[in-house]
Write a structure and sequence with these properties.
Elements: H1 4-11, H2 18-23, E1 28-32, E2 43-47, E3 50-56, E4 62-66, E5 80-82, E6 85-87, E7 94-95, E8 101-103, E9 121-122, E10 124-127, E11 130-133, E12 156-163, H3 167-172, H4 192-199, E13 204-209, E14 213-221, E15 226-235, E16 239-243, E17 249-258, E18 261-269, H5 319-328, H6 346-363, E19 389-393, H7 398-414
Antiparallel strand pairs: 1-11, 2-3, 3-4, 4-9, 5-6, 6-7, 7-8, 10-11, 12-18, 13-14, 14-15, 15-16, 15-19, 16-17, 17-18
């Protein structure tokens, strides 16, 4: 349980808020690369309570500017992309990707007025089919070297989906291992993970602090001979790495639009082979507007008949739909002063403590956890690259196995 003040601290993300100042210290996805292909129109975006415009100029450079022209506040999302920048339709002022005002056609010849205008602009980067932006002050940190960014495109899939709630409750849903036993329960003959998660509904949990956040071990004793260990990673400040392919994992990145809405970006990758069509099923129920086809307005098309023998919640097989139902149902901003956290919520409580400490670190002028500077080479470069789940003989000490597997994985990663 959080106090009202703590809840506000972590869920308010706009300019001038302490929670927003924390998230601005990290690179955040702002769009899919496919939303701003060469020759495309400017894209209006809202991020951390700010209205902005994203565009790709004719030199393939990506800019992120304040949406309102510095002259008289016309909407730059309608602007022309030409002459190395974004030209306002109202009076022809031209801005480059850095916010420099290049031209003011209405000013007298020889005027230097344009040199006195600096438009709001944020650094951008493009990696792994995503466009990132850094909205913090000072020198941007390094973009985290997540493995998913560097595999060939056919070995990676990305999507985004609109979420009608605060980002924090979206990400907290990722780090709750026990909900797998119920929310995602489906009748899938031959699906080992489904069987293992539903057979044992009260996993033993252990947490490990890391350089990137928290590693969460959920241990289920399947029978006298076998133990199922599933690992989820809370990654500061607003994402999680969860079990995916045996040769990869999935990332869920919850990016605040404002206090009461966010984008969920999903990244799935495989180290060795292309993503199969059926593995892209999560994006099949997302419309062209990046909103779920199953949603609150149609009660997620819940099928009560299917609840009798096929699906515990009756909302189809898509886990994104399941998660969205749960987190949006908590309200636009969950009231954490009235909740009752139990044993299986220990990771959520630990993540909140970590976030609150990070807010204090930023207030004191320090880099929060998992902000990576170019001069540093720390274990978070490799820390989430271990496999996410495995069934082991009960005679095997899973702690020791995991330590050895992590060492092997790190050694392999350094030579990839």
């Amino acid at each position: 349980m959080l106090t009202r003040e703590e809840n506000d601290l972590l869920t308010q993300v706009g300019p001038g808020t302490l929670g927003g100042a924390l998230i601005r210290r990290y690179w955040q996805p702002v769009a899919l690369s496919s939303e701003v292909p060469p020759g495309s129109a400017p894209l209006p975006v809202r991020l951390l309570g700010e209205d902005l415009v994203l565009f790709r100029d004719q030199f393939d450079r990506i800019g992120l500017l304040g949406i309102h022209c510095a002259h008289r506040a016309a909407d730059l999302s309608y602007a022309r992309i030409e002459d190395g920048g974004l030209r306002c339709l109202y009076h022809g002022w031209l801005y480059d990707i850095h916010g420099n005002c290049l031209e003011q056609p209405g000013e007298p010849e020889g005027s230097t007025f344009k040199d006195k205008v600096q438009h709001l602009a944020y650094p951008t980067a493009e990696r792994g089919d995503l466009v990132f932006a850094y909205l913090g002050g000072g020198e941007p940190p390094s973009l985290p070297p997540y493995e998913a960014f560097d595999v060939p495109p056919e070995q990676r899939s990305v999507y985004k989906v609109f979420q009608d709630c605060n980002y924090l409750q979206g990400n907290e849903g990722n780090i709750d291992p026990q909900h797998l036993s119920f929310l995602h329960r489906l009748s899938r003959p031959g699906d080992l993970n489904q069987t293992l998660n539903t057979r044992v509904t009260a996993p033993h949990l252990e947490l490990e602090d890391t350089d990137f956040g928290i590693r969460i071990y959920a241990v289920r004793k399947v029978d006298e001979e076998n133990t199922y260990v599933r690992v989820t990673n809370f990654v500061m400040p607003n994402l999680a790495a969860v079990a995916g392919d045996a040769e990869g994992y999935s990332i869920n990145w919850h990016v605040p639009i404002d206090d009461t809405h966010h984008w969920r970006y999903g990244i799935r990758f495989n180290r060795t082979q292309p993503i199969r069509p059926q593995q892209n099923a999560r994006s099949e129920e997302i419309g062209e507007d990046f909103r779920l086809i199953r949603n609150q307005s149609n009660r997620y098309l819940q099928d009560r008949e299917s609840m009798k023998n096929r699906a515990f919640i009756g909302m189809g097989p898509n886990f994104v739909v399941h998660d969205t139902w749960a987190t949006q149902g908590e309200g636009a901003i969950q009231n954490r002063t009235t909740e009752h956290l139990g044993y299986t919520d220990m990771a959520i409580a630990a993540a909140r403590r970590m976030l609150l400490k990070a807010v204090r670190d930023v207030q004191e002028g320090q880099d929060p956890l998992h902000v990576i500077r170019a001069s540093e080479r720390r274990s978070e470069d490799l820390g989430i690259y271990v496999r996410n789940d495995i069934v082991l003989p009960s005679s095997v000490d899973w702690h020791r196995y995991w330590e050895n597997d992590s060492v092997r994985e790190m050694a392999t990663s350094t030579h990839r």
